Sequence to fold (432 residues):
Amino acid sequence: MHLNTFDRSRARMAAASEVLAGGVSSNFRLGISPTPLVIRDAKGPYVIDADGNRLIDYYLGMGPMLLGHDPETVIDAVRAQLEHGILYAAQTEIEIEAARLVCEIVPCAERVRFGSSGTEVIQAAIRLARAVTGKQVIVKFEGHYHGWLDNVHWSVSPSEQTCGPLEKPSKVAGTRGQDALAGEHIAVLPWNDLALVRARVAKGDVAAVLMEPAMCNTGAIEPGEGYLEGVRAACSEAGAVLIFDEVITGFRLSAGGAQGLFGVKPDLAAFGKAIGSGFPVAALAGRADLMSLFGTGEVLHGGTYNAHPVAMAATVATLNELAKGEVYRSIDKRGRLLMGEIGEILRAARIPARVQGFPSIFHVSFGTTNPIRTFRDTFALDRKRYVRFTTELIQRGVRALERGAWFVSAAHDDAVISRTLDAVLASARAVS
Ligand code: PMP
Fold:
């Protein structure tokens, strides 16, 4: 069987390293086996790399490409928008339409503000929560990622040695150079433990509880029965703002995101990724009475590129496509099939593994067959073997994230799924 090689990517990465720090523009692109790729094209479910390998892609730009890599309606809308100039520092009709669609589709959305990245709209949410409540503490959870800035990059992936006791996790800085004081008002808790959230917000000093409503950055973990409802009630009772970080789950788990799927409304929600099919767009959405503080100018939210017309055109085209529903039916069917078959193949190959999550984003974990329920369950995983597996996969034409996540798009049709499963079978044999 033909196995892909990556010599050209390797050579170009050497050239990249002479001009880009580490050869990349985001640390999450470092250190990938057998080499970080240089990509030259993307179509449907595929990316084509510098060596000419056509790879079935389960990275999907880290999530945004829910419609596949070249959704025609989005590309047409962007081309048409470019005929009208680039940036105006003013409102646009297309921005009003994008906001109207978000308000129509997302349960908690009464008002919207657009930005350019998930990282920055999370910051807007935190600032707003502090302004509204007059309190400072932000509760965040172990293993949850909310962008790379100093005040939220705590205990995102602490080691077993540093994470501290479960009921009172240590606050672990995520990077050298982090402002130690930026964590002063952050309280870290384990996710999916309602009693601990209740006890913490009852202290009365919490401005906001910030969470991924389904934990997709470490494993693909569902909220436990009654957990979101319980946190919602606890926040309402204590006057704390509940913020859902739906940067991954938004428009992916369902049109209405995790809040639509689980039927629990936060006060504020942050969106990014899938909302704009790969264009740099993010949104903060939420209660009108809270968001009005931006409107009166009491709370600052700014940005030269906010609601960039091109990104707004992509957003409107994306949301109109998603509103039809067909995308979700297709992904639901293919994602379920993929999860089930991958699980079967790994079982048959006698590789202890757990496949869990949602059809549109699931996780394959090696080293355990038990459900992954918390961040700490991931300490038991056999990450080295999983990287050997993804390395085998990419040689066979399937590009999947080394951390175990698989993003599925509407462009992954039956033939693509079938070819993926052939590669999974051969790769499982190679590492068993
Ligand atoms: N929140 C979550 C849940 C995310 O997954 C990410 C990105 N992976 C972010 C926030 C940050 O978004 P961005 O990379 O667009 O700044």
In short: The mean pLDDT is 97. The pocket of 4'-deoxy-4'-aminopyridoxal-5'-phosphate is lined by residues 62, 117-119, 122, 145-147, 212, 217, 245, 247-248, 272 (CB under 6 Å).
